[in-house]
Amino acid sequence: MPLCCRLCFGWDSSGGGGTTPIKADIVGSVSSSLPNSFTHNPLSGLNMVTVNLRATTVAAVLTVLADQTTATCPSGFSWENNVLTKAAINSTTNAELFDFGPVEGTPASSTIIGGIPRPRCKTFPGDPLWPSNSVWNLLNLTLGGALIKTVPLAAPCYSDWPQYDAAQCEYVKTNWNRPQLHVEDPTSAMFPLWQGQTCMPLDHPSQIYDNCTLGGYASYSVAVTKVSQIQLALNFARATNIRLVVKNTGHDFADKSMGAGSLSVWTHKLKDIQYIPDYTCNGHSGPALKLGSGVETEEVYQAAEAHNVTVVGGECRTVGMAGGYIAGGGHSPMSSLVGMGADQVLSLDIVLPNGRFVTASQSSYPDLFWALRGGGGSTYGVVTSVTVKAYPQIPVSTLGFVFGTSPNVTADTFWAGVEAYTTYFDTFTAVGAYGYWLIVNIGPGQFFFSMNPLWGGNMTLVQFQPLIQPFLDDLANLGISIDPVWNEYPSLYQAHSGTFPPENVGGADNRAASRLFPKDNFINPTKRNETMAAVRYAVEAGGILIGYNIRAAPNSAVNQTNSVNPAWRETTGFFILAAAWPADASPTVIQAQSNILTNDWMARWRQVSPGAGSYLSEGDINEPNWQQSFYGSHYPRLLQLKKKYDPTGLFYAHTAVGSEDWEVEGQLPGLPTQNGRLCKKP
Ligand SMILES: Cc1cc2nc3c(=O)[nH]c(=O)nc-3n(C[C@H](O)[C@H](O)[C@H](O)COP(=O)(O)OP(=O)(O)OC[C@H]3O[C@@H](n4cnc5c(N)ncnc54)[C@H](O)[C@@H]3O)c2cc1C
């Protein structure tokens, strides 16, 4: 005899109709406490609906999720063959919670579950319509136990959290600035400013609040290991009108992988890498790598090394290659040779906002294929895997050196040395070289330059040194002496491991903006003078400059007709500028410094590069006219496709395509955290 229960959608009902309260625990121990069926009702005043969820039918869903072959070229990973079908949904009595959305391109449903007209705001914790613990438990059961209730990463530091643990707190504190700590957490991201710093490790220099709340963290995450779980999560979020976010590693400069009151799809566990020596699909033949969307850059480089090939990836070891990196365009030490990361894509597998799982390639969903390569993450669906072209293994030569102001090198001479470098930007990138460097202000009128490294892809030292020597001669003629460190490596992986410094994240004491300077800014002497004056102004005022001498090389071997910001195709100088403040600065101080970054320093950079752009994955959270800056002339088409594939706005991220229609409530001007409720603008 099944035990029947009844609850309102937003709360467990222990009264009314003589029903028995559900005693389901928080996610983690659901199966024993789950009732065989229950009913949940929208609040009074709205039409009553009944959604029965039987444990037996939930089990049936999991059974009907039979493995079936999905993508054919290349074939899917085994977990990509575990998909949700209409038959599986129909076999339950709870179809409303997990049903697919309308086919793309058809009108969006104007109602959510229960026939309720779609509200202006996403449902938020504490709202009457927020699912009860029991409903979350049912979701967890349906997901096969993959749902995680958020515990902030630094909760072990707070005695009012059950997870309080001094030793664990010490571990979190010690490792807070390491990317990997945040990569391995379901909800944490690397820029705590946008989370609201509501739960920093205790005694961290950036701690300004002494309490620990969820802040901008998602409420729940799904640690996905198969496609069906992503489909179920998307369908559930759409039906219940809950904000959805996608978290991979949490590297995005604007913390686009988090949001208060959201259900997060956490892709970290999708780690498969398949080497395909003779990929022959989508008009391409040759070696390729298929990457699960949780794979990090260094893991890809290692796999490529094992198969004696080279793959285009970023400079940071832990960035998610098939997640935000490719979605944003993806710059690489290889870019001056073969183009952007997004240019290398042969096909992508993706769960669409309507819950359907499809392959996007030149021949399948070609409009989506165009948009997914540069149009930004968290916009058109959840990418599950990406297949990218692989190149033969190449030698890489590198050069590292530093110089700075000194009794022999005045500030003017220092800047003349920097300008001398910029005169070679076009020459170096034209033959495939790339430079990654840093300039910091180390005191009034004192500056420091570090080359980390200058990189010659597909060059031996014998080829690389003569290319670079004229620049070193210029430095010597200016009286700037350096101690060059030359190296030659047999592969990208070895050069990458041997040269790029580890990166620090997790600080709330700075934030960044970026500019893609067109090559003419360094070729034309007048423009170069203006550009260098604007750059020097910002660094003299305290800005920290991370520079790249890079181009997105044209490459007829790949499909470069994609949505990568056209500004990338014009650039030879990609400059990131950070403003800093004391670690314990108040929001007022941060707002003031933040304002200087956007409206003074960067305004001057924009003024000397009218019509150029910025890199959306490493951009200013307050970028003015961000549609033009981050997406350029592609924006109208990207927006049209957003409306086609995601008409109800299931996917949202700050400055993502279509995000102008939405706002996160309760923001301090100029300090946009993810801590509030997401609402459609009136
Ligand atoms: C230290 C550091 C170094 C960096 N180095 C480089 C570099 O060398 N080259 C470069 O181009 N960029 C670099 N970046 C920027 C980086 O590429 C972007 O932040 C990128 O968006 C990270 O993607 P992710 O998936 O790892 O991170 P996340 O922050 O988890 O995701 C970024 C965005 O993509 C979305 N997303 C993630 N996975 C998916 C998915 N499977 N489907 C749909 N949407 C998804 C998220 O929702 C979010 O909006 C660096 C950033 C940092 C902090």
UniProtKB/TrEMBL annotation:
Leader peptide range in chain numbering: none
Coiled-coil positions: none
Transmembrane regions listed in the UniProt entry: none
Highest taxon of source: Eukaryota
Sequence ranges assigned to domain FAD-binding PCMH-type in this UniProt record: 214-393
Pfam (any one): BBE
Keywords: Oxidoreductase
Record PANTHER family: FAD BINDING DOMAIN PROTEIN (AFU_ORTHOLOGUE AFUA_6G12070)-RELATED, GULONOLACTONE OXIDASE
Family designation: Belongs to the oxygen-dependent FAD-linked oxidoreductase family.
Name of protein: FAD-binding PCMH-type domain-containing protein
